[in-house]
Amino acid sequence: MSTLAIALPQVKSMLKCFDALSAYLRQGQTVAVIGGQTALSKTETQIRESLANWSPSFTVYGKECTQANISRLAELPEIRNADILIGVGGGKALDTAKAVADQLDKPILTIPTIASTCAATSAISVIYNEDHAFEELRGLKRAPLASFLPMEVIAQAPVKYIWAGIGDTLAKPVEIEFSVRGRTLSVEEALANQISQLCIEQCLLHGEKAIENAKMGRVSEALEQTAFTIIVTTGYASCLIAPELSGSLAHSLNNALTQFEIIEKEHLHGEVVAFGVLVLCTIDAQVELIKRLRPLYKAIGLPTKLSQLGIQPDRGHLGNLLRDTVSGEEMRFGAYQVDEEQLFKALTTLETV
């Protein structure tokens, strides 16, 4: 197994970053934009103005990142015949657009309109099935050419997205370290591990203030640094390491929890993953790290118990959750094999803390 040979995307993080879009295009190219409905409503005018010489087409991606939806979009003439794609929106919209670009072997630029995941800069797409349950983590041939972070749009997004983004970001250093522990690392893998560790420090330093600023819809240093950490730092780490080493129990638990309807309807990916971080730290006896993280969890309201996600940690209610978590594809590599008893014990222990 080797890491992917993927170039890291360039990043433009600024007010009015749409003005930089045209620098990545050549005259005569055809451009297709794929995005979420809400995201396009907030950005289409700026994109059209920036790309007036290219007359881009605009397509709403749908509601889910499924293979059927990816294939449907890839068959649309305006997308199939485009020279370059632009993905706009949140994680599912960007993952869909990236997967379409990968299927058609086209370059893609990304514009994340919320700071909730590293989808804008990573070379992976999370694919779901038609029932909205996790299906696969798909490695892509290349990362986006560049990503544009429109802070004025991100600051106006519902605060729940950057809140969940902090939770998702905290998982990157914990999961990568657990996955690579005891391995002889390549330079890329060691660099990914080191870069990912910045996520904890930045979230602890800026996270609470970023949430306060986001509630006011105000662009600030704390908000920009946190958004950059969520979108870029984690994405760069992902680009430098094989997908199977980029995640672990926190994401495997999240994927298994998608079988519960309440998770899809009432909770966000990063929120659930944040709880999974505490589960992994509990199993791995990372007491000091838990002590460092708990104040931030308490300050911004991230979940620390399974019951806070609307699911009781009793075996009769968990169904296949324990089995699916420990046998998930993210669990193929790690410091050691986690079994169902260890997982159940951690879930029940966290309920009493």
Question: Mind explaining what this structure looks like?
Answer:
The protein is of the alpha/beta class and 353 residues long. The chain has two domains: 10-154, Rossmann fold, CATH 3.40.50.1970; 159-352, Dehydroquinate synthase-like - alpha domain (Dehydroquinate synthase-like, alpha domain), CATH 1.20.1090. It is built from 16 helices and eight strands. It has helices spanning 37-50, 67-74, 77-80, 91-104, 151-154, 159-180, 187-215, 221-239, 243-246, 249-257, 261-266, 269-283, 287-300, 315-318, 321-326, 340-352, and strands at residues 10-14, 31-35, 57-60, 84-89, 108-112, 124-128, 134-139, 146-150. α6 (159-180) packs parallel to α12, α7 runs parallel beside α13 (287-300) and α10 (249-257) packs across α12 (269-283). It starts with 9 loop residues before the first strand and ends with a helix. Mean pLDDT is 92; it is low at 1-5.
Question: Can you give keywords for this protein?
Answer:
single chain, 353 residues, alpha/beta, Rossmann fold, Dehydroquinate synthase-like, alpha domain, 2 domains, 6-stranded parallel sheet, two-stranded antiparallel sheet, 16 helices, 52% helix, globular, disordered N terminus
